Amino acid sequence: MKKTLLILVFAFIGSTSLFSQRIAEDKIDDFNHKHIIRTSWGEFDYSFLCSGWVRYNKIDSVTYLTFSMMNASEWLSTIEEGNNFYLKFADSTVMTLPVMEKAYTTIGGGAKGMSGSKTEGFMLNLLVTKESKEQILSKPVVKIRIQTTEGHIDKAFNEAKDQRLKAILKLID
Asked: Rounded to whole angstroms, what are the CA distances from 70 to 7, 35, 108, 136, 168?
């Protein structure tokens, strides 16, 4: 009994720290005087993409979701600025989040630790408006589509992924 309880406690502690993100930066830039708020990097299940991390950024009134990934999938290179990232909700409505920026990074650039430290990195910035944030927070996301230069990729989005996305978006007002 004590062994089972101990295992449950460690599992709970591990799961809460694994998904805990916080505000990592909140400052006014010395040169451009813009207010910058960034969360810490949080692991996100990109089984539809590859291994990666996500952070939420706000620069003055513009907000982005930034995905940092290990470029283990050849189709990642077919995502371009101006492509779209679509979210389909349980009520069948669809939202578009434009890819505002993509960047290749150096070897290890997509890693946040030793895992993947020898793999090239890849980053995407998706624009999140106040209206799109409100919509994501108010309805369950059930499917995503990523537009590429060769077509698109569709993946189911389960409740756990939906809750994780909502938790990230709630960190910054």
From this structure: 32, 29, 8, 26, 20
Is the pTM value of this prediction over 0.85? no
Beta strands at 94-107 and 120-128: parallel, antiparallel or unpaired: antiparallel
Closest Cα to residue 126, out of 108, 150, 144, 149?
144
User: Which of 114, 85, 120, 115 is closest to 100 using CA atoms?
Assistant: 85
Joined tokens for residue 97: 């989040």
Tell me the pLDDT tens digit for each residue of 13-25.
333 334 578 899 9
What mean pLDDT, rounded, does the chain reach? 75
**Mind listing the pLDDT tens digit for each residue in 57-93?**
999 999 998 877 765 555 555 677 778 889 999 999 9
Question: For residue 12, which phi and psi values (nearest 5 degrees)?
Answer: -65, -45
Q: What angle do CA 171, 21, 99 make, to 5 degrees?
A: 65
User: Which tokens in the block code for residue 4?
Assistant: 């089972």
- Rounded distance between C-alpha atoms, residue 100 and residue 166, angstroms: 21
May I ask the CATH class of domain 23-169?
Answer: mainly beta
Pairing, β 42-43 against β 84-89: unpaired
pLDDT tens-digit profile of 136-150? Answer: 999 999 998 888 788
